């Protein structure tokens, strides 16, 4: 039995980079939709909704995550 160590290392590297990137992108989405206090001195019990730009960026991040997952499923099923 012969193991192609270079190919195994390449698969590991690409998987690691894509996983870290996808988790980071999802984290950006969560931060974008999280509620923040109204002002610096305001108590945490008075949250406000995130700004429209932050919400749009978060939705774009979630859409990219969904697209990456769908592409991964396509690669597995199509083979």
Helix and strand composition category = mainly alpha
How are helices and strands ordered from N to C?
HEEH
According to DSSP, the number of beta strands is 2
Mean pLDDT: 88
**Fraction of residues in H or I helices:** over 70%
Beginning-to-end CA distance, first to last residue: 24 Å
Strand content: 5-15%
Low-confidence stretches: none
Largest pleated sheet? 2 strands, antiparallel
Strand order of the largest sheet: 1-2
Number of helices: 2
Please state the CA-atom Rg, rounded to the nearest Å: 19 Å
Q: What coarse outline follows from CA principal-axis ratios? A: elongated
Write structural notes for this entry:
- This protein has helices spanning about 5-35, 50-79; strands at about 35, 45-50.
- By secondary structure, the chain is mostly helical.
- α1 (about 5-35) runs antiparallel to α2.
- It has a two-stranded antiparallel ribbon with strand order 1-2.
- The radius of gyration is 19 Å and the shape is elongated.
- It has a domain at about 55-79.
- This is Secreted protein.
- Keywords: Membrane, Transmembrane, Transmembrane helix.
């Amino acid at each position: 039995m012969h193991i192609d160590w270079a190919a195994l290392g390449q698969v590991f590297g690409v998987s690691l980079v894509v996983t870290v990137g996808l988790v980071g992108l999802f984290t950006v989405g969560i931060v974008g939709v999280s509620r923040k206090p109204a002002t610096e001195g305001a108590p945490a019990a008075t949250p406000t909704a995130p700004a429209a730009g932050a919400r749009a960026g978060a939705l774009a991040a979630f859409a990219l995550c969904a697209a990456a997952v769908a592409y991964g499923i396509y690669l597995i099923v199509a083979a």
